[in-house]
Design brief:
The complex is a heterodimer of chains A (773) and B (322). Chain A contains 3 helices and 33 strands. Chain A is globular. Chain A has helices at 6-11, 288-295, 499-504, and strands at residues 43-51, 68-80, 89-96, 104-111, 115-132, 167-184, 187-208, 225-246, 252-265, 269-270, 302-303, 308-322, 325-338, 363-379, 382-395, 401-404, 415-418, 424-438, 441-454, 461-474, 479-493, 523-534, 548-560, 567-585, 588-607, 611-612, 618-619, 629-651, 655-674, 700-719, 722-736, 750-751, 760-772. In chain A, the strands form 4 sheets. Chain A has a 26-stranded antiparallel β-barrel. In chain A, a hairpin with a 5-residue loop joins strand 26 (611-612) and strand 27. Chain B has helices at 2-26, 40-44, 76-79, 83-87, 105-113, 128-131, 136-139, 155-160, 164-170, 205-210, 225-229. Chain B is an all-alpha fold. Classes of the chains: A mainly beta (773), B mainly alpha (322). Chains A and B meet through strand 7, strand 8, strand 9, strand 11 and strand 12 of A and helix 1, helix 9 and helix 11 of B.
Chain lengths: 773, 322
């Protein structure tokens, strides 16, 4: 069924080129041979449509942001030498969405079995907003109206001289691919060149000045400020692939490949002026006027993604030792490098910073991947598979100290931190055994053991042990089902909460004792997956409804972190829903589905302003956990998705009507609780936990996103080669999010985007003509 | 640890050796069935209709290419030698790919793999789909000019037949453009088998993501370790109710790994949204004036300031703010 974006359903009418029986592959025998009707392989589609509202969100990826008229255009041209002519020449060309800024073109030509060439072009827009408000006119960081820097002279009563209004924020990808293949004996040689240009603007933000903020009793930020800006995007990603493949129909297969990828960022830095006039704390110079002047001499030195490159050598081998035993080897060696010149450590023009130890990073990552697998059927009912995988990533960059001028703030003695060239090595072994306990019932057991060794991490080693059992059965001719249970246990070895920070050079800084990074922490995972498929055909002992298919798919998993007194304590997910298809007749069919999904997270943490000993004497801030109290936060993310569609041919092969409806309802709630208000001991010698006063916690409003969309489409075959296509669609999206729709100047010390909420209510109507020959 | 892994691998080798021995010792003599003497012409005598004939216009029908079914034994190249079916219409062909009398998955797939075992299909045996008895014909439609699974506008619907969770994800607020037919399942996954996780095209999650998001590849001077190890530590690729395909909202997502004295472990609850203070009614949102408090609860949360969350190449970027 076509549960496409409603806009795409109207704009892309290319499905008309497929025969009506495209999705049917039944075994059928005609009573007498029937002459095949003429096959139309070429088609042109033209049309017009009208959209009632301008909204970037609806057309985020489709390329029709504006209200009003839009064009529909596409074509297909297809030729292949007659099957029994001895010829092998073919060509195929098609284009879709040609009048829109999401057009695609592709073409292939060649002689099957000998050579082929292909070309494709694709546009992928991404519309983020058309209601952006900002203080910068664009990517060069100049403030609106030429207003001077530091025009916001009081961080508590900010008043920018001007804001841009309703700027369009979007990016566009233009992707070109050219490739070819050549068949030489049993070898297929393919090559392709892929160029991806991405350009536009993207919302981004950065903090200005101040020290890392101090949380006071009511959460005010006292010393730093924030502003959003439009980051210029101008990327070129080029990739060359060359592959040689051997042995499609022999006992042995071989693949050799090389890939070179280059990413170029045509911008290196965003250097917008600091818009805030700090009257204190901006520099070491005393006096408000001097500080204000100094504030106006600060630009950001915001580094944009540096250019980089990567190479990959790949070799794959497969061999059928016997018809029931196969070995596979997959090997890959890669290098990723980055050596873009450093941007300035700071754009603060009021002092001369300590420069970096060298001009560029000269970073290099070496990756090695090796996978070996044996798959066998030693007995008619027994399947076995064993594999070993090595995934190794070594960071070969050197370490050095770099002065930190945080948020372009001045510091007489900047912190000197050392970079961490992190690496990991992952070894994994798996064994899987499946046995047909009955002719149509199979039970599978699998076990895997996985170890990951990391450098510069809070834990250097984690191991995973996973065991799973699955039963698949065709319970009858009309019912089949499967059920799988998996248990995974991860152990984190020698966890040191301060290891990464210490290695950086942040002495005296550590996560609280009892807190574990969730992706490193010891974890127990249980997962259950099940499917039931019911197709009550003529032989079904109960309901006999040919053309009916009902399936139920469900999955639930639960993660628990047994060692984590603080941090993510548990999370679980659930998805389940039925799917029903019914073919009433050859001319009437329907499909409906429902899916319930839930994601749940449960986290504990501590609020701490200082470290105290058991007598209440305040020590210097550092590792440990005397607190104002612990807190608990739960996120409950629930989604209901409903879809229904009907396809009906009131006049077979002449008139076809389709209707499609989708509802997606997402609701996320955030609850908080006082997590126990006890301080946790740092060691066995720490005194008895001390109850503290309760924390002031309030609930957060739930966030909701509700999407309703319906589309109606009619295709009337006016002539065997002329089809009129008409359609109407309506789509409504409402979004309720406390964090969204913040006014640009709503906060005293921050300039936000002022984006309107992405709600929309849009109707579109379209009419198109498809002509085939 | 390495001993355990080696034991597993050796165990597999022993079983494979046993399989080879068993196969060599017990393989019975099989008398080959004859193919139709006139190849596809025989079948087309009856199956020359709208449902079957389009295969002749497809890649499988080109007799000039000696590799194709039609250049070999015609329809029987895929459906197996079927002398009984030629004699009596009520007898099924050698191999059936759908319907009540469909052949076992291994038999069906063996027919396809006899020609399509290299390249993308090299790791089919023992892959997730093969283990779950998914047949080639579960996804591919052969008797048509153009297989719908190879078309961007129709491929996802086929995958969603079984992967219903991903279908629901594609409708969420933040999503890859799957239903807009700009990114399809095969852009990230190789459903025929892969040595990497989750049938991804590349051997790791991150290398798959870097194909389109090369600006994240680095390496960078200041790395964010969970980012470098696996994008899925923070993101969910098919769709999310949170912005930017995040699995959880900042600051709560960040606080799953960060809890330190200072603002890291601060509580960004509703108290940060409203004119705060005990006893004040919190339904005064949105707040106004200078009493508005912590902007970390708004917009992108922690990423408002730590916007270089994927890592930074700025000498002063250790805190991911530049």
């Amino acid at each position: 069924m076509k549960h496409l974006h409603p806009f795409t359903v109207l704009a892309v009418a290319g499905l008309a080129t497929l025969p009506l029986s495209a999705f049917a592959d039944d075994f059928d025998v005609a009573e007498t041979p029937v002459a095949a009707p003429p096959v139309y392989n070429n088609e042109v589609r033209v049309g017009l449509g009208w959209k009632t509202q301008s909204t970037p969100v609806l057309s985020r990826y489709v390329g029709q942001e504006s209200q009003g008229l839009f064009g529909i255009g596409g074509f297909t041209m297809d030729h292949r030498d007659a099957w029994n002519s001895g010829g092998t020449t073919y060509y195929h060309a098609e284009g879709d969405n040609l009048p829109l800024t999401s057009r695609s073109l592709n073409a292939q030509v060649g002689q099957q079995g000998l050579w082929g060439l292909n070309f494709s072009y694709d546009e992928i827009p991404y519309y983020q907003s058309n209601t952006y408000h900002g203080i910068y006119t664009g990517p060069n960081g100049v403030t609106v109206g030429g207003a001077g820097t530091g025009s916001i002279t009081n961080v508590t009563t900010q008043a920018p001289s001007a804001l841009s209004s309703n700027q369009n924020v979007n990016v566009m990808r233009n992707i070109f691919t050219v490739g070819g293949k050549y068949q030489w004996q049993d070898w297929t040689i393919t090559s392709s060149i892929h160029h991806d240009h991405k350009e536009g603007l993207q919302e981004n933000s950065l903090a200005w000045l101040g020290t890392p903020s101090v949380i006071t009793g009511n959460g005010n930020i006292t010393s730093s400020a924030l502003s959003y800006f439009l980051q210029p995007i101008n990327y070129d990603t080029d990739r060359i692939d060359v592959t040689a493949v051997y042995g499609n129909s022999s006992r042995m297969q071989l693949l050799l490949g090389y890939t070179y990828s280059s990413f170029t960022d045509n911008n290196t830095t965003w250097g917008g002026y600091n818009p805030f006039g700090f009257t204190s704390g901006a520099t070491a110079t005393a006096g408000s006027a001097a500080n204000l002047a100094a504030s106006q001499n600060i630009r950001a030195s915001y580094t944009l993604p540096p250019s980089n490159s990567a190479q990959q050598f790949k070799a794959q081998f497969g061999y059928n030792l016997t018809p029931t035993t196969r070995i596979n080897a997959n090997l890959q060696y890669g290098l990723m490098s980055q050596n873009a010149s450093y941007t300035a450590s700071t754009g603060n023009g009021n002092f001369t910073p300590i420069g970096p130890p060298r001009d560029s990073f000269n970073g290099m990552i070496e990756t090695i991947f090796a996978n070996f697998a044996i798959t066998a059927r030693p007995l008619p009912k027994l399947d076995v598979r064993a594999s070993y995988t090595l995934d190794d990533r070594q960071n070969l960059a050197s370490r050095a100290e770099y002065a930190q001028y945080i948020n372009d703030a001045y510091s007489a003695s900047p912190g000197m931190l050392t970079n961490l060239p992190s690496s990991y090595t992952d070894n994994k072994g798996t064994l899987e055994v499946g046995y047909h306990i009955l002719p149509k019932t199979k039970i599978t057991l699998d076990y895997s053991y996985d170890t990951i060794h990391r450098t510069w991490s809070n834990t250097n080693d984690t191991t995973n042990s996973t065991v799973a059992v699955q039963v698949r059965s065709a319970l009858s001719d009309s019912v089949s089902a499967s059920l799988r249970y998996m248990h995974d246990a991860r152990w984190a070895g020698e966890y040191n909460p301060g290891a990464s920070f210490s290695a950086l050079g942040l002495t005296g800084t550590s996560d609280f004792f009892g807190f574990y990074d969730y992706y490193l922490a010891s974890r127990r995972r249980d997962e259950v997956k099940g499917t039931i498929d019911y197709a009550p055909g003529p032989e079904s002992p109960f309901l006999r409804v040919p053309g009916l298919t009902i399936s139920l798919v469900g999955k639930a998993d639960y993660d628990y972190y047994p060692s984590s007194a603080l941090g993510l304590k548990s999370n679980n997910s659930l998805s389940i829903g039925p799917d029903i298809s019914y073919e009433f007749s050859k001319t009437l069919s329907m499909h409906a589905f429902y899916e319930f999904q839930q994601l749940f997270f449960n986290t504990n943490s501590l609020v701490s302003n200082a470290v105290c000993n058991g007598s209440g004497t305040t020590l210097t801030p550092g590792p440990g956990c005397t607190s104002n109290g612990s807190w608990n936060q739960k996120t409950d993310d629930i989604t209901h998705t409903v879809g229904a569609s009907v396809d009906w041919q009131p006049i077979p092969d002449k008139l076809k009507l389709s209707a499609d409806y989708t509802l997606s309802y997402g609701n996320t709630s955030y609850t908080f609780a006082d997590g126990g208000i006890y301080s946790f001991p740092t060691s066995a010698t720490n005194p008895t936990p001390v109850a503290t006063s309760g924390l002031y916690i309030m609930p957060l409003p739930s966030t909701k996103g509700i999407l309703n969309s319906i589309s109606l489409k009619a295709e009337y075959k006016y002539r065997p080669n002329i089809t009129l296509i008409g359609g109407v669609s309506y789509s409504r999206f409402t979004y309720q999010d406390y964090a969204y729709g913040v006014g640009a100047t709503q906060f005293s010390n921050a300039i936000f985007t002022g984006d309107a909420k992405p709600n929309y209510s849009v109707a579109a109507v379209a009419l198109a003509l498809a002509v085939r020959w | 640890m390495r001993k355990t892994l080696l034991t597993v691998l050796l165990g597999g080798l022993v079983v494979a050796a046993g399989s080879m021995t068993a196969s060599a010792q017990t393989k019975p003599a099989v008398q080959a069935k004859p193919y139709a003497p006139e190849g596809p012409t025989t079948c087309l005598t009856c199956h020359d209709d709208q449902q079957q004939a389009p295969v002749l216009s497809s890649v499988h029908g080109v007799q000039g290419d000696s590799r194709t079914p039609m250049a070999q034994h015609g329809c029987e190249s895929c459906h197996g030698p079927s002398p009984e079916h030629l004699s009596s219409r009520t007898a099924a062909p050698g191999v059936l790919f759908n319907g009540r009398f469909a052949s076992p998955p291994a038999v069906q797939n063996a027919m396809c793999l006899s020609c399509h075992q290299a390249g993308l299909r090299m790791n089919w045996q023992g892959s997730q789909h093969a283990t779950n008895d998914v047949t080639c014909s579960s996804c591919h439609t052969i008797h048509v000019r153009k297989d719908p699974i190879l078309v961007k506008t129709t491929q996802p619907q086929k995958c969603f037949t079984c992967h219903t969770e991903q279908r629901a994800d594609s409708y969420k607020f933040s999503h890859h453009p799957i239903r807009e037919a700009k990114v399809v399942c095969a852009d990230c996954h190789n459903p025929h088998g892969s040595p990497g996780p989750k049938l991804l095209k590349e051997v790791t999650v991150n290398e798959t993501c870097y194909n389109c998001h090369a600006e994240k590849r680095g390496p960078l001077l200041w790395e964010h370790l969970p980012v470098r190890e696996n994008c899925l530590n923070c993101h969910t690729p098919h769709g999310s109710n949170q912005a930017r395909l995040l699995i959880e909202r900042p600051s709560f997502l960040c606080q799953d790994c960060h809890a330190n004295s200072g603002h890291q472990a601060g509580i960004y609850s509703g108290a940060q949204l409203y004119n705060s203070g005990p006893g004040l009614p919190y339904k005064t949102f949105p707040p106004t004036g200078a009493n508005v408090t912590n902007f970390r609860a708004f917009a992108r949360g922690c990423v408002n300031c730590h916007s270089q969350v994927h890592g930074s190449n700025n000498p002063s970027g250790a805190y991911f703010t530049r």
